[in-house]
Design goal:
Mean pLDDT: 76
InterPro entries: Faap100 (IPR029251)
GO cellular component, one term: nucleoplasm
Low-confidence stretches: 169-174, 293-297, 337-359, 406-413, 579-585
Structural class: alpha+beta
Strand content: 35-45%
Number of strands: 45
Shape: elongated
Protein name: FA core complex associated protein 100
Pfam family, one: FANCAA
Number of helices: 11
Largest sheet: 6 strands, mixed
Helix content: 10-25%
Strand order of the largest sheet: 39-42-43-44-40-45
Organism: Poecilia latipinna
Distance between the termini: 119 Å
Length: 818
């Protein structure tokens, strides 16, 4: 064997490792070794003969194995419970042929001695079996009394102790195996212990034991169980103290992989003066008793350190820790021989050097990769160390380490120590630079978030302090047009959100548009339902706009007018994102709404124009006269008459002088300009996209179809009326259609536009008192007719004609708008 290098020898192949169980290499009886590869098998391997002796087939995946102190019973932990096997069954009989292969035993549920769900680890202390399980809310440590009469007898439950789980985000590694070890005060090991105690039992110095676990545990000479949990907590439980409970000794803040003990000085007489715990990511802690006269006094000293991770498995002898990262096998010399531990000279210097964890932080590579499980080290009389390991490919191999003399340590120690110190400093500098870069990125991100939240606050204040009549700096405008898709016509609204404020609408904003018909047909039950549309957007700067499109109504729908309510929604969830908003937020506090403005789509917006009818010709040709005569004779011969649908109408009368002043028209006929203005005016914040208004210049007639597909005709004529003071020239707008709904809707739309025109013009004309008195009298009469039509004595068949007659009287005799 070459000096300074280790040699690896393959002993057996067990195949690829499973994922449901744990990979283990544990000592057994004599030279036997128990091997688990993550499946349902337990292999019994003889190290002395290098042969496989037996195979145990368990009912479920194996989590842990442990042997009783008298080496007569083997306990195997599976997910569903603990099984017990007599070790004598694993010894082949004399009649068994050596060449026939290992003994195969199938373990049934009859060997189940302790029923427990999700068992993680096992430990035997004297005649007590301990199981560590995880429940939904806590970790449970349960004590059982081992039965010596028969292996199939269930164990008696003695006690159970629990430790609550931490936060689910921290408690994420549920598949990691826990660590269970037992420590004793001094050299007080159980009388039934084997000659070579397993690596899960350690004697501690009485001073360290008393300072860690208290004087009561030390006086009662109680064994103490240490539990290393996947959440990083290292807890302990004294077994012989009444009323004891699980308590926390330390927290590594990462999954605990290994817990062991080491001798500090040669005068320790086989007692360990230091406890060590390793975490999954390489964090480590050394726990020892401080001596009086040194810095820190005589209390317990916790020395924190870190080794290159991740730590897959670990084991240790008296002063060295061997651990695997998966890619390499490393050795850490806890107490370097170069510091002079053999003598008593320079006791203070030696103690100061041991308190420095520099040597602890610098492992030595052994150049062996793929190790996932390690056996307890064995040291020969010549000082050679042998390790048994299980690789990720299921290979059992023996690793022999070279003998390291004191001269080698003295000659190579200082130069290697300098190299390690320089490497540690460079590594620390790199870690600090990386952390500083990460912190700068976090600070930059937080500052950006604060700036964006400041924009949100400014926009909220700007929109909240505006009255309904004021134009808001962030508002919507719309335009409607008819479109055809899949042979179906629909009226679509294009809503444009304009940002006229000096602020930017960043991420987290959503444009909410609610469409609500103000009326609905009787077939729908008389109740109108609203439809809401949401359009998320981000990065809308000052002077910019975003355009969205949504359907308002389909062809044949007469639910007009339609109100379109626009508002801005801000969601803190969308602003922060799921990865940053880790804390649960209240839905009411995480989202708020800012109303903008309301758009109105009426019958004039939804009117589809068509060509006006051709004017009647003054003279007809003989062919036309003949065709008309034949058609009339055919109707008479059939005994029928030409049926024409009933036509309804409504009128609005406006003073021509008022229209010229309000619209700014030149002297002349304003009738054509009035119709064009009615169809192009953006009333209610909505405009109609029309290619061109088709009017007849001589008669001022506009024809089209209403949303309910009824034919509609709009006419505007100048009429001379005689007033008491002087004659007036007025413009009369008339709406005609066979649909009552179309006449009512268009009449209402015309009145809304003229009302808006009057508000803009600010007319101060005086209306004669007599005209107002006559209008009020007429309104009172018609109100009485409506009351009569809706009274109880009138039959349901007479009510619609009465109401229709009142409506026609209102529309046929309108007021004159001066």
């Amino acid at each position: 064997m070459m000096e300074g290098r280790c040699a690896a020898e393959s002993w057996a192949e067990f195949g690829l490792l499973g994922k449901s169980g744990s990979s283990l290499v544990k000592c057994g009886t004599g030279t036997d070794v128990f091997i688990c590869t993550g499946g349902e098998e337990v292999y019994v391997f003889t190290a002395q003969e290098k042969t496989l002796r037996a195979v145990l087939q368990m009912p479920a995946a194996v989590r842990d194995v442990v042997v009783s102190h008298d080496e007569q019973l083997l306990f195997v932990a599976c997910w569903s419970g603990v099984y017990c096997v007599n070790v004598q069954l694993l010894v082949p009989s004399f009649s068994h042929d050596a060449g026939s292969g290992p003994t195969e035993l199938k373990i049934s549920t009859e060997c189940l001695v302790a029923v427990a769900d999700r068992v993680s680890s096992l430990l035997v202390v004297g005649s007590v079996l301990l199981t560590l399980c995880r429940t939904d809310a806590s970790w449970s440590l349960t004590l059982y009394q081992i039965q010596r009469t028969s292996q199939s007898d269930p164990c008696d439950l003695l006690a159970s102790f629990s430790l609550p789980l931490v936060s689910p985000k921290v408690q994420s590694d549920t598949e990691s195996r826990c660590v269970l070890v037992c420590v004793y005060p001094g050299d007080l090991m159980p009388a039934s212990s084997p000659p070579h105690p397993p690596r899960s039992h350690y004697p501690l110095q009485p001073l360290l034991f008393r300072r860690l676990f208290g004087a009561e545990a030390a006086l009662s000479k109680s064994p103490v169980v240490l539990c290393g949990l996947p959440d990083g907590r290292l807890s302990f439980l004294p077994l012989r103290i009444p009323g004891s409970r699980l308590r926390i000794l330390h927290s590594l803040e990462q999954s605990v992989v290994f817990v062991g003990a080491s001798a500090v000085m040669e005068t320790d007489a086989g007692c360990a003066g230091c406890l060590i715990a390793l975490g999954k990511q390489g964090r480590a802690v050394l726990i020892r008793a401080g001596r009086a006269g040194l810095e820190g006094g005589g209390g317990t000293r916790f020395t924190l350190g870190c080794v290159p991770g991740p730590v897959e498995c670990a084991c240790m002898d008296q002063s060295r820790v061997y651990y695997s990262t998966g890619s390499d096998l490393l050795m850490v010399d806890l107490w370097d021989g170069s510091s002079g531990t053999a003598g008593r000279q320079g006791d203070k210097e030696d103690e100061a050097s041991r308190s420095n964890p520099a040597a602890f932080l610098t492992p030595i590579s052994l150049n062996v990769s793929g190790v996932v499980a390690l056996h307890q080290p064995a040291r020969s009389s010549a000082g050679e160390v042998q390790l048994l390991s299980l690789s990720v490919r299921g290979r059992l191999q023996s690793i022999r380490l070279p003998v390291r003399t004191q001269e080698d340590s003295l000659s190579k120690g200082p130069s290697s120590q300098v190299g390690r110190s320089v490497g540690d400093i460079l590594s620390a500098i790199g870690d600090i630079c990386e952390r500083a870069s990460v912190l700068k990125t976090i600070i930059r991100s937080k500052n950006q978030i604060l700036k964006q939240l400041n924009q949100v606050v400014n926009i909220s204040f700007l929109l909240s302090n505006r009255s309904e009549s004021d134009l808001k700096p962030v508002r919507c405008r719309g335009s409607v047009r008819w479109s055809r898709l899949l042979q179906r016509d629909s009226l679509n609204l294009t809503c444009v959100l304009e940002n006229l404020s000096p602020f930017v609408l960043e991420r987290g904003w959503t444009l909410s548009v609610t469409v609500l018909p103000l009326s609905c047909p009787l077939e729908a039950g008389g109740e109108a339902s609203s439809v809401n549309y949401s359009f998320p957007f981000s990065g809308l700067g000052p002077g910019e706009s975003v355009e969205v499109s949504l359907p308002v109504a389909a062809a044949g729908d007469a639910s007009f007018p339609v109100t379109v309510t626009c508002s801005l929604l801000f969601s803190l969830w969308r602003f922060l994102g799921q990865e940053e908003a880790t804390a649960p937020l209240d839905l009411q506090s995480a989202c708020f709404s800012l109303p903008l403005n309301t758009l109105t789509v009426d019958w004039l917006h939804a009117l589809r124009l068509s060509d006006p009818p051709a004017p009647a010709r003054s003279s007809s040709s003989p062919a036309d006269l003949l065709q008309g005569f034949i058609s009339s004779r055919q109707l008479r011969c059939r005994g029928g008459q030409a049926s024409r649908p009933e036509e309804y109408s409504a009128r609005v009368r406006v003073s021509s002088e008022l229209l010229r002043d309000a619209l700014g028209l030149a002297p002349g006929s304003p009738r054509v300009s009035l119709l064009e203005w009615l169809l192009s005016e953006g009333c209610g914040g909505v405009k109609m996209e029309r290619k061109g208004i088709k009017t007849d210049g001589s008669s001022s007639v506009i024809c089209g179809s209403a949303p309910d597909n009824a034919t509609v005709k709009l006419t505007a004529e100048e009429v001379n009326v005689e007033e008491k003071t002087k004659p007036l020239v007025i413009v009369e707008v008339q709406v005609k259609s066979s649909s009552v709904a179309a006449v009512c809707g268009l009449h209402h739309a015309v009145l809304r536009r003229i009302q808006t025109l009057l508000q803009k013009a600010g007319s101060s004309r005086m209306v004669p008192t007599t005209d107002l008195r006559l209008a009020l009298q007429q309104a009172e009469e018609q109100r009485g007719q409506v009351w009569e039509a809706s009274s109880v004595g009138v039959s349901s068949g007479q009510t619609p004609p009465l109401l229709l007659r009142v409506y026609q009287q209102l529309r046929d005799g309108p007021l004159l708008i001066l």
